[in-house]
Write a structure and sequence with these properties.
The chain has 14 helices and five strands. It is of the alpha/beta class. The protein has two domains: 187 residues, Glutaredoxin, CATH 3.40.30.10; 85 residues, Serine Threonine Protein Phosphatase 5, Tetratricopeptide repeat. The termini are far apart.
């Protein structure tokens, strides 16, 4: 709850969100702190962000929303974990962060907002945060940030592809496909979008659990059976276990680079596309492939 002595901080509700946040941000930036009484990190962050806002003497306002009592706008913004802090300017969300950041980072966040940092740069930074969260396995946070970016820029193809990839990571192919439907016609050949489509295509190669075990047993029984190893790599790729797929394809290529007319290399490049150009699996896999090719 906001301190009664705070001049630029107030508690608000879903009913007053349009007035207190959206309309108010037309004249000055507004920061929204989504919190709940049971959330320890929220209680840790609250006094910090309030202190920094009050220190700016009216250049920015803070609105606090208890999501237990007011879930509507938090839901619209894709908030799935708290504390979640969104910055609004000119009626739209322009930046966000999650978790109880230290005061120095909260101060930097607010100063960037107050100084009028270009919204495109803010979106780029949000996308970088989302990608980092995804690579660390924090799919929920990544999805939340991607959704916030899409809310700000509905045609942001990187955010659309990123959100679709988050759905895939949770095994929800249908929602991934539905999300890709948001991609503008002139951006359907974007590399990120094509990568997600490749991942969806590969999911059709995922076998049942008993078939998977049979392939693995066959490869362990005869490590030189490249046909079975290739099938196993396909199965791993279909299950989005890209690192395992890459390992087995590189074993084939290490033995015979042009095996089956380059079939293993072609599949490896498709796995890289499905995983994404910046994924550590792709970066390391390309390095290992280069080492084999130019050894």
């Amino acid at each position: 709850m906001a301190d009664a002595a705070a001049l630029h901080t107030k508690d608000s509700t879903d009913q007053d969100f349009m007035t207190d946040v959206v309309e108010a941000s037309e004249t000055q930036p507004v920061i929204v702190d989504f919190w709940a009484p049971w959330c320890g990190p929220c209680r840790q962050l609250g006094p910090v962000i309030e202190r920094v806002v009050e220190g700016h003497k009216g250049a920015v306002k803070l609105v606090k929303i208890n999501i237990d009592e007011n879930p509507a706008y938090a839901g619209q913004l894709g908030v799935r974990s708290i504390p979640a802090v969104y910055a609004f300017d000119k009626g739209r969300p322009v930046d966000a962060f999650l978790g109880a950041l230290p005061e120095s980072q909260v101060r930097s966040f607010i100063e960037k907002l107050v100084s009028g940092t270009d919204s495109a740069q803010a979106l780029a930074e949000a996308l970088a945060q989302a990608e980092a969260a995804s690579q660390q396995g924090d799919i929920a946070t990544a999805a939340q940030i991607y959704a916030a970016v899409i809310n700000e820029d509905p045609e942001n193809v990187a955010a659309i592809a990123g959100l679709a990839r988050c759905y895939l990571a949770n095994g929800d192919k249908e929602r991934a496909l539905a999300t890709l439907g948001m991609v503008p016609e002139d951006k359907k050949n974007d590399s990120g979008v094509k990568g997600v489509r490749m991942a969806i295509e590969m999911m059709g190669d995922a076998p049942a659990a008993d078939e998977f075990d049979g392939l693995l047993d066959a490869v362990m029984a005869d490590p030189n059976d490249h046909a079975k190893r290739y099938e196993l790599a396909e199965a791993y790729a279909g299950a989005q276990r890209y690192a395992d797929a890459v390992d087995h394809l590189l074993i084939i290529l290490g033995s015979k680079m042009d095996w089956e007319g380059g079939k293993a290399k072609d599949k490896l490049l498709k796995v890289f596309e499905a995983a994404g150009a910046t994924d550590p699996v792709t970066v390391e896999g390309r390095r290992r492939l280069a080492s084999l090719m130019f050894a």
